[in-house]
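User: For my dataset I need records formatted as: sequence, then structure tokens, nothing else. Please produce one.
Assistant:
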Amino acid sequence: MDVTATASLASLWDEVSGTQPDPDLWVVIATLGAALAVVIPHGLWRISRNAITIAHEGGHGLVALLTGRTLTGIRLHSDTSGLTVSRGKPHGIGMILTAAAGYTAPPLLGLGGAALLGAGRITLLLWLATALLLAMLVMIRNAYGALTMLVTGGLFVLVSWLAGPQVQAAFAYAVVWFLLIGGVRPAFELQAKRARGGAGDSDADQLSRLTHVPAGLWFFLFHAVSLCSLIGGGRWLLEM
């Protein structure tokens, strides 16, 4: 590798890993309001929930790989449901962690994003998110899922490469607020659906069969992770 290429890579790394100035407080508050606006109304949530499903299924897939399972594919559906398939032992800690990763992934990703933004690493957050989305795209096995990933990943690429610092900051804060707030709602929706006799094979039910721990305790874990992430991440985002 010649000196010019080495210098270019060093410059790129400095740009990605460096810090950027915090946005004005009104930007942070405005992006919080925008996240609430697409999570609370049922009509908009039916659309925006697709992004939470990406994080949910991505969490299953990433933990499956980290625990030594073989990830065979991910499917995203137009009703905002999804399916991640992996091969390996049908029991044991790897399977338990993989099953538990779905509902905890969006709020934990939001918490990690809030930590990066709190440290001023806006560019690093955008690049990491783009890399994760591109890696997940490779494992998508249906047309709707591929389209969803291309639109989402394309948006991150456009903002990361073409937008100015202020737009990047606003976009990053909006995404993190959305993960933190949107990560709370799905577990409550699932619990309500189970109370009406549906969703008999949910992540909580699978975990209950794997661990012999009641599904209600797994719901408590999902709620605890999402609410604690929202509180902790929100404090980081609002500390200017």
